[in-house]
């Protein structure tokens, strides 16, 4: 019987790859955004398998909120009568496919040639304590500047959308 952790890994990997493909291939922008959310949930599951529960929680909290905002902005900014035609294919589909396949082949060769050694050390007992000490100690200024930068980006995006709605016929 296979190891349950390996089974969960392959299930989550299939979920992430399948939903990422759906993000790119679907024409409905709302469906693409929902599959993007599913991709991020799968990545959070992979973080849990790696015993990085904090990263999994951050992945869910940050990206779940980002996807909700993305859906709202996508619906507000895309001005099409039929939402199913909102994510049209580009004329550069074939060159992009070729470049993507070449890059995938290069990454597959690089991963295949790498000697993978297992990490045998146990996970740290209190990973959040050292993270909190760094965020609220040595890197507190950078942490606060990043928060202000993100807040100003959100306010700017809202102002842009409000200005567009007023100037629209």
Kindly report the average pLDDT value. Answer: 81
Name the shape in a single word: globular
Task: Tell me the name of the CATH homologous superfamily of the largest domain.
Answer: NADH-ubiquinone/plastoquinone oxidoreductase chain 6, subunit NuoJ
Low-confidence stretches: none
- Whole-number radius of gyration? 21 Å
In the CATH scheme, the class of the largest domain would be Mainly Alpha
Overall structural domain count? 2
Number of helices: 6
CATH topology description of the largest domain: Four Helix Bundle (Hemerythrin (Met), subunit A)
CATH architecture of the largest domain: Up-down Bundle
Distance between the termini: 64 Å
What is the subunit arrangement here?
A: single chain
As a percent range, the share of strand residues is under 5%
Could you state the order of secondary-structure elements as H and E?
A: HHHHHH
Tell me roughly what share of residues is in helical segments. Answer: over 70%
Number of strands: 0
Secondary-structure class: mainly alpha
**Main sheet attributes: strand count, strand direction, barrel closure:** none
């Amino acid at each position: 019987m296979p190891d349950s952790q390996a089974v969960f890994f392959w299930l989550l990997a299939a979920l992430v790859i399948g939903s990422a493909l759906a993000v790119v291939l679907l024409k409905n922008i709302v469906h693409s955004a929902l599959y993007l959310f599913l991709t991020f949930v799968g990545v959070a599951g992979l973080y849990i398998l790696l015993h990085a529960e904090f990263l999994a929680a951050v992945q869910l909290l940050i990206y779940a909120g980002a996807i909700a905002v993305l859906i709202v902005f996508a619906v507000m900014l895309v001005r099409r009568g039929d939402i199913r035609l909102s994510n049209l294919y580009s004329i550069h589909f074939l060159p992009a496919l070729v470049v993507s396949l070449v890059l995938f082949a290069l990454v597959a060769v690089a991963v295949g040639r790498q000697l993978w050694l297992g990490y045998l050390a146990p996970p740290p007992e209190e990973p959040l304590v050292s993270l909190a000490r760094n965020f609220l100690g040595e890197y507190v200024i950078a942490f606060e500047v990043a928060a202000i930068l993100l807040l100003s980006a959100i306010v700017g995006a809202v102002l842009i959308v409000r200005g567009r709605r007023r100037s629209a016929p």
